[in-house]
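Whether sequence alone determines local backbone shape is best considered at the level of individual chains. Part of our work consisted of pairing the sequence of a single chain with a tokenised description of its backbone. This step matters because it turns folding into a mapping between discrete strings. For completeness, the protein is quoted in full, as a sequence line and a line of structure tokens:

_____
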Amino acid sequence: MGERIKLARERKGWTQARLAEAVGVSQPTVTAWESPAGHKVGRANRDRLAEALGVDPEWIEYGSGRGIEEPASLRNGNGVLHSPAPLPVVTARPVELPQAGSMKRDVPIYGVAAGNGDPLGGDFQFEMGAIIDYAPRPPGVVSTRDAYALYVTGDSMEPKFEHGDRVYVSPTKPIKPGDYVILCVRGRSPGDPERCFIKRLVRRHPDRVEVRQFNPDKTLTFATADIARMDRVLTQDDLLGVL
């Protein structure tokens, strides 16, 4: 299994750290998975690995189903992988970073108030009109005029997002599984403020949305009818305008 994980990762041109981020684990965990000792991969992590690497879970575990074509040079007489695939040749493209002073400070930062200890974890409340400050506008959101920023509260998304981290958010960018989102659900009673969460989108169904948090690691489900809005947390590539 470890050789297949390593093969699929290297075919994508990813480092172990990049795969760890995509799956939501630490880089040493990926190292352990790929080691000759073959550390066990739980079913949930196996499925997340398959989604990140674009293969079937069965291929990761058993070598069957949709996977990565394994060159004959990587197999011994028993058809077992014995050496890694070469890393693909990638041409680096430099990105010119803007000077901090050259960016307009016009992205609204909305004030947030810590939630009331909701068992879902990491909840907060905010009002779209309660602006507490303005953040610099990175080049990637120059044309995203409705972008806004928030400060993360709580530790439910550590180590990806820690308490106090500032994130940029777009209510119009398309959202796909694997994206981080600000998900807001309607108040429990009429007149109650929305409760909002920063989570990672797992999948959407017609009647519900599944999201994931890291601390503790679990999947949460919200009824579509209860969701007021779901906005995408922008990545570094989004903010820099890197395609």
